[in-house]
TrEMBL record, chain B:
Metal-binding is among the record's keywords: no
Entries under Gene3D superfamilies matching the protein: MetI-like
Keyword terms of this UniProt record: Cell inner membrane, Cell membrane, Membrane, Transmembrane, Transmembrane helix, Transport
Keyword Transport: yes
One Gene Ontology cellular component: plasma membrane
Protein name: ABC transporter permease
Pfam families assigned: BPD_transp_1
Cellular location(s): Cell inner membrane; Cell membrane
PANTHER family reported for this sequence: INNER MEMBRANE ABC TRANSPORTER PERMEASE PROTEIN YDCV
Membrane topology: Multi-pass membrane protein
Length: 283, 268, 349
């Protein structure tokens, strides 16, 4: 029953949201792109110009190192997250509704926590005075408490913690729509639960897995605080650098340039993952 | 059975992993002394009281709640006509607007935050309180947009056709048939946006960080300048709010459905 | 001119023609069934009456007025959908009162109308029930009551009984017919079930692949099918090829048949219903109207006996009752008697 819009009020319905998004999303982006070409002025913000200086800094080894580390870290986090979340979400979608809802409420609550709170939680948990090590000392396993952060492991743990609920929710629709009879057939043919999971469920959803990996990768790339809170300066990622440059170094143009770069990378990855998702629906 | 045991172990490990930092923070929030130690020494609810009694925390709380209410309302007000239009009309060009609606949330928050920083600075409104309401409202538009799109999809076309055969025009159908059926999705979209806005740090910071202090901003500042257990009690409060909000949605609505599941008996 | 008229109606979806140019008149006050296999265009035709599909060409006239371009919500009809489409968020009474409420009818008048309609469909005192707590048959009746709330000129039903179980379906067919006769409202029902059409309809419109094959009362459709499709779709039949010889005789494999309304010459197909063929034991040569054959197989179904016979290589089926059963068995030679009025010469299908 879909018809073409006819009257003015028909078009006005989409006009309002389109207008809002244009003004408050597209324009800010446009300005940010413009700023990336501006000249940074010491002591002030920046002055309008058109220079490539900011982008030229991408070519330094310093930047290259950070870029490489960011991508590597995000990829690792995505892989670990999906490895854990995929079997978990599969189990989740087979649960009784009541239990499912309890888990979902729990995961949604964790998902809603911002990086600040997660960072605070994990830095506490890994600290010398109020963390796991204290518990282990109290129980007698450790001699004296120690701080487990800052370290690469701490950054990884914190980031996986943050991405895990997101990964579950991204996988949820596809896994809950999976036809249970596929696995049932495998079981009747003699395949144990783990084997039928590996041989039936994983291949059936491989496009979902790939597109989820990409989505989580983009999500992990966006972590701006955890690497800073839980890691050493060598663990800083692109997003941390952007935040740092924008706020503390007052170098908006450079921050903007990096942000533009990050946008381009994220958008192309999201587009790829959508294409993968479409392929799976068509299959 | 070994399999069930391994299953339980796996689920237990995940649960422990998810709950651990929260448990520790909760423990710390009850600590009697103003220090970061676990297991807690002594028990005190002082740090919870401080959220409401101490001026700076209380005003941060009000700021957070105020922004969250405004932003989530704005998000729904923008998302609804868009979702309705996409469902009702055949207009391929409208997909662009849909992508614009999904984009803010898919991109890393740093980018959106930076965009707003440049925008408000250029507009000369940097630092004014209402800018963060708009910033959050647009940033979180995706949430009600997604839930509303699902909601419209779930409306049976034949219901709309039946209402038309009974003499209802578009506006009447919207008012009498669609709105009542979509209401749970409106509410859940708004609730998601509300909870996320409460918690959100970077966009708020870059928009109004120096003038308006929301709770997450205050916590971050406290992280840098000095620890107080009130940070922990605020975290616990946020988790509690989230659990209550999502719990209510689950109680009155079909949470799995809202998150994209459908079951085979849905085809009747 | 009252009633519903399709004037050269065509419906295309892109390249696909769902309804080829069709002109059809549905007299006022009659119960009409659009009958055909799935994909024949019957539902599309119904939806065009409702305005849910726009005609690609042609006009639709109701009581002389051209309604082709009028939007759905301004047309005057009530419709029952295949999945019933009861509003899940409203009670039974609110569902039925919906068309009245949106026209501003007062609450009191609505209540009275709902009561009247519920009595009409034999569901008294159900007004407060939520829709989810109804059985299939009850939902069916509520959908009917709702469609009739505005006392419309036309009553449209799209496969209304397909979701019901067999026994309920049969009793509902009779109820629907009685309801229509009581109200005298022009009713159009889409169905793929020929028994349903034969039970309820005053007029049957037989369709396939977007074309109307025949419009006639049920008995006429059965006894005098126009073409092979109609003959085969309604009930079962034997389709026998034949040739008209120069002397006006109808020659078929194995002999000659007698029939009325023979065309002058040419190849024809003759339809003969199994229950009209009389089978007797015996051997010999064929005579006009009587063919020699052999029994292939006999099926005793209890209430009827099916005989599968072979006549000059062609398979013919005959049906008889147990009391009239001839004393024959597989392999026997038999006579097949074809009464003249049972042989229907078909037009080209």
């Amino acid at each position: 029953m879909k018809i073409k819009p006819r009257t003015f009020s028909d078009y006005a319905t989409i006009g309002f949201p389109a207008g809002m998004l244009m003004v408050f999303f597209v324009i800010p982006f446009g300005i940010m792109i413009a700023v990336s070409f501006f000249q940074r002025v010491q002591g002030a913000f920046y002055e309008p110009a058109f220079v490539f200086d900011n982008y030229a800094r991408f070519l330094t080894s310093f930047f290259g190192g950070i870029l490489g580390f960011s991508i590597g870290l995000a990829a690792l986090v995505a892989v670990v997250s999906v490895l854990l979340a995929f079997p978990f979400t599969y189990i989740l979608t087979r649960m009784a509704r009541r239990t499912q809802v309890v888990w979902l409420v729990f995961l949604l609550s964790v998902l809603s926590l911002s990086e600040v709170l997660i960072g605070f939680g994990w830095s506490t948990l890994l600290s010398r005075t109020a963390g796991i090590s204290n518990l282990l000392v109290a129980v007698g396993i450790l001699d004296k408490p120690m701080s487990l952060s800052p370290s690469f492991g701490a950054v990884m743990t914190g980031m996986v913690y943050q991405t895990f609920p997101y990964t579950v929710l991204v996988l949820f629709p596809a896994l809950s729509r999976l036809d249970p009879s596929l696995v049932e057939v495998a079981r009747t043919l003699g395949s144990g639960p783990v084997r039928s999971f590996l041989n039936v469920v994983v291949p059936a959803l491989r496009n979902s897995i790939v597109s989820t990996l990409i989505m989580v990768f983009v999500f992990a790339l966006g972590c701006y605080l955890l690497p800073q809170l839980l890691g050493k300066p060598s663990h800083w990622t692109l997003s941390v650098l952007i935040t740092d440059q924008a706020i503390y170094q007052s170098n908006m143009p450079f921050a903007a340039a990096m942000a533009v770069f990050l946008v381009l990378v994220s958008l192309s990855l999201v587009a790829i993952s959508l294409l993968y998702g479409k392929k799976e629906n068509a299959a | 059975m070994i399999n069930t045991f391994i299953l339980r172990l796996f689920l237990g490990a995940i649960a422990l992993f998810m709950a651990a930092p929260l448990a520790v923070v909760a423990g710390v929030s009850f600590n009697e002394r103003k220090s970061l130690s676990f297991p807690p020494e002594g028990f005190s609810l002082d740090w919870y009281a401080q959220i409401f009694t101490e001026d700076s925390w209380r005003s941060a709380l009000f700021n957070s709640v105020g922004v969250a209410v405004g932003a989530s309302s704005l998000a729904v007000v923008v998302a609804f006509p868009l979702a309705w239009f996409l469902w009702r009309f055949h207009a391929p060009w409208a997909r662009i607007v849909q992508v614009l609606g999904l984009a803010p949330f898919i991109l890393p928050p740093v980018i959106t935050a930076l965009g707003f920083l440049s925008f408000w600075t250029t507009a000369g409104a940097y630092g004014q309180a209402w800018t963060v309401v708009i910033s959050h409202g647009i940033f979180f538009v995706t949430l009600p947009l997604v839930t509303l799109t699902l909601g419209f999809e779930a409306v049976d076309d034949s219901l709309v056709e039946a209402a038309a055969t009974m003499g209802a025009d578009d506006r009447t159908i919207l008012r009498t048939i669609i709105l009542p059926l979509i209401l749970p999705y409106i509410i859940s979209g708004m609730a998601f946006a509300f909870v996320l806005s409460l918690n959100e740090y970077i966009v708020a910071y870059m928009a109004v960080g120096f003038t308006v202090e929301t709770l997450p901003i205050k916590i971050f500042n406290s992280l840098r300048y000095g620890y107080t257990p009130t940070m922990a009690s605020v975290t616990v409060l946020f988790v509690a709010i989230a659990v209550v909000v999502f719990g209510l949605i689950a109680r009155f609505g079909d949470l799995p459905r809202l998150l994209g599941a459908w079951r085979h008996d849905d085809d009747s | 001119m009252s009633g519903l008229v399709f004037d050269s109606i065509v419906k295309k979806f892109g390249e696909f023609t769902a309804v080829h140019e069709t002109s059809l008149t549905i007299p006022q006050g009659k119960f009409v069934c659009l009958l055909g296999p799935s994909g024949c265009g019957k539902t599309t035709l119904l939806r065009m009456i409702a305005g849910l599909e726009a005609a690609t060409a042609g006009r639709i006239l109701l009581d002389g007025d051209d309604v082709t371009r009028i939007p759905t919500h301004k047309r005057d009809f009530g419709m029952v959908f295949q999945n019933l489409a009861l509003f899940p968020h409203l009670t039974v009474g609110e569902n039925i009162a919906y068309p009245l409420r949106i026209r501003g009818v007062s609450k009191a008048d609505c209540l009275a109308a709902v009561k009247r309609l519920l009595d009409l469909v034999q569901l008294p005192d159900m007004a407060g029930r939520p829709v989810s707590k109804l059985s299939g048959g009850q939902k069916q009746r509520v959908a009917i009551a709702r469609a009739l709330a505005l006392e419309p000129k036309l009553f449209l039903l799209d496969e209304p009984l397909s979701a019901l179980d067999a026994k309920l379906r049969e009793s509902m067919q009779i109820e629907l017919k009685q309801l229509q006769q009581k109200l005298g409202i022009t009713t159009i029902v889409v169905t793929h079930d020929q028994r349903e059409a034969m039970t309820m309809a005053d007029l049957v419109v037989v369709m396939s692949q977007g074309k109307v094959h025949q419009v006639a009362p049920p008995v006429e459709i059965y006894r005098k099918p126009k073409d092979a499709f109609v003959a085969d779709f309604i009930g079962s039949t034997n389709l026998i090829s034949g040739r008209i010889s120069g002397s006006g005789k109808l020659a078929v494999a194995g002999g000659t048949l007698l029939a009325d309304d023979l065309p002058a010459t040419g190849d024809v197909t003759v339809s003969v219903r199994p229950e009209n063929i009389r089978v007797t034991a015996g051997r010999g040569d064929s005579t006009p109207g009587c063919l020699a054959g052999e029994v292939s197989y006999i099926r005793d179904l209890g209430a009827s006996i099916e005989m599968y016979l072979s006549v000059a290589g062609q398979q013919i089926t005959a049906i008889t009752t147990p009391s009239d059963r001839p004393d024959i068995a597989a392999g026997d030679a038999v006579w097949l008697h074809f009464p003249k009025d049972a042989c229907v010469v078909l037009g080209d299908a």
